[in-house]
Design a protein that fits this description.
alpha/beta, Rossmann fold, 32% helix
Length: 149
C-alpha cells in the first residue's frame, strides 16, 4: 500500500505526538544525509495531515550519519547486535507509550516486526488505541511510502 492510498491522520491523531523508532542497520539511508532523511520523514507525515510533534530515535551504527545535527536521538549498536538493538527499541517504545497518552502515533522503521514487536503493537493498539505505521525497508518513509496497521 502506498502513501497515496492511505487516509490522512484522523481527528486528534493529527495533532498528537508521533514517535519514530528507526533501525538504521535494517533500513539504511540511500544517498541522503540523516538531516535530509529525517526532514523527508517529517514532511511525509505532514503531507498526510500530521501537525503534532515528531520525535525520532535511531538505533544502529552511527558512524555513517550525523544524527545529532538532524535532531535525532541515536543509540549506537553494531550491525551484529540485532538482539540488543531491538531490545533497546522495545524498551524505548514501552517508555514512550507510558509518557504519551492516546491518541498517539507510533512509527516503526525496521525490517522484521513480527519477531520482536508484534505482541507489543497489538497490545498498544487494543489497550491504548494508538495508531501504528510500519515502514517497509523497500518503501521507506523518506520516499513517501508507508503502511498503516
Amino acid at each position: 500500500m502506498s502513501a497515496s492510498s492511505v487516509t490522512a491522520f484522523p481527528g486528534n491523531y493529527s495533532t498528537a505526538e508521533a514517535g519514530v523508532f528507526w533501525d538504521i542497520n535494517q533500513c539504511e539511508i540511500p544517498d541522503l544525509s540523516a538531516a535530509e532523511a529525517t526532514q523527508n520523514m517529517r514532511h511525509t507525515l505532514f503531507n498526510k495531515g500530521h501537525r503534532g510533534t515528531v520525535k525520532i530515535k535511531a538505533y544502529g551504527d552511527k558512524k555513517y550519519y550525523d544524527f545529532l545535527s538532524a535532531g535525532v536521538d541515536i543509540n549506537h549498536f553494531t550491525s551484529e547486535e540485532i538482539y540488543e538493538r531491538h531490545t533497546k527499541m522495545f524498551e524505548d517504545v514501552v517508555s514512550w507509550a507510558a509518557e504519551n497518552p492516546e491518541p498517539s502515533t507510533l512509527v516503526l522503521i525496521l525490517g522484521d516486526t513480527e519477531v520482536d514487536f508484534h505482541g507489543l503493537v497489538e497490545r498498544l493498539k487494543r489497550e491504548r488505541k494508538y495508531r501504528f505505521i510500519y515502514v517497509e525497508p523497500s518503501r521507506p518513509l523518506w520516499a513517501d511510502a508507508v503502511i498503516y496497521f
